[in-house]
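To whoever is on call:

I kicked off a structure prediction for a single chain this morning and the downstream step that reads the tokens threw a length-mismatch warning. I double-checked the sequence; it's 373 residues and nothing unusual in it as far as I can see. Pasting both halves so you can look.
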Amino acid sequence: MDDLNLSQLLKIRTLLSVEGLGNVKLLKLAGTFGSLDAIFNSSLKSLTSTPLIDHNLAARILTAIESPGLVEPEVEKEISTLRKINGRFITYWDENFPTPLRQIYMPPVLLYYLGELKKEDTQSIAIVGTRVPTHYGKLQAEKLASELTERNVTVVSGLARGIDSAAHRATINQNGRTIAVTGAGLDVIYPHENKKLYHEIAEKGLIISEYKPGTKPDAQNFPKRNRIIAGLTLGTLVIETKLNGGAMQTAAFALEQNKEVFAIPGNINSPMSEGTNRLIQNGEAKLVTNADDIITELELKLFPTTAKSAPIPELDLNIFESKIYELLSEEPKHIDKIAIDSGMNTSECLVNLLTLEFKGACRQLPGKTFIKT
């Protein structure tokens, strides 16, 4: 953690301490100004000239910028704890920030982690499910995690009791790569009985949290945790869950992010199979029985063609359309993410995206996502 990163952490914590300036608005503001430094060098006039910031919020931002000492003790405490546990942090603006997370709605501004970030983790599948699985569910989690590991797919889960722990453990036993996304600070191991598993994952894989050190595993943390599990992966496999289980939230996030959802069918008389069977029944999840079913469905994403693309015809675009067009790719991108990166508000983006669609330059997909055509 060099001085530059420490300075950036201080800037982020300073801005996030401002009432009314959350992650989403901060990302949009940074997109408008071009960088965090530009925000810190801004004036009341430049802040209020953006549609994001009213006079009162702008005044609070400037007050916070002029009083960095208010958050310095908190930042120093974070750094001290991270050094003790060999933890690190990465910001949305860092080059090595996980690319898939840049594409989701409400991407995290900060991630804390133990272990090593690897580019090959883009080829990953989430395995999630109930904390109280049946014997059948646990066996399926172990089986699918092992099969995916044999195919060099990273297994992502939430380190919870039950299905999550079974998936992590099976992956480690196969000397595979696994990522645990937690709902607490890196120095707070939850559940406590997973202490040994936690340290094994930190040593051989990766543990990620968007929560600063010392954060307790409060209930409201886990839905936010689930969007990251879905966001990191190519798809989400649900093993067993009730209709109101947290795994259903992860599946919903995956669908919202235009990701694939898979489910293991279960006993129709078992409450733990209600969720998976419903996902399959509603056509929201593909029924799978082994890893090959998942690999086949994701074949193009896991093994992209090396054939050269056809030349792109010249398009008659204005300056705003060109700016948005350059931000698009073959991977779906959410409208909120486009707004953040372009520095425009959502309404302006939608108007220009509609024009691009008329010109055949982009296409809208479910979940308010867009791709370049």
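Update from on-call: the warning came from a stale cache, not from the record. Cleared it. Sanity check on the structure: The chain has a mean pLDDT of 91.
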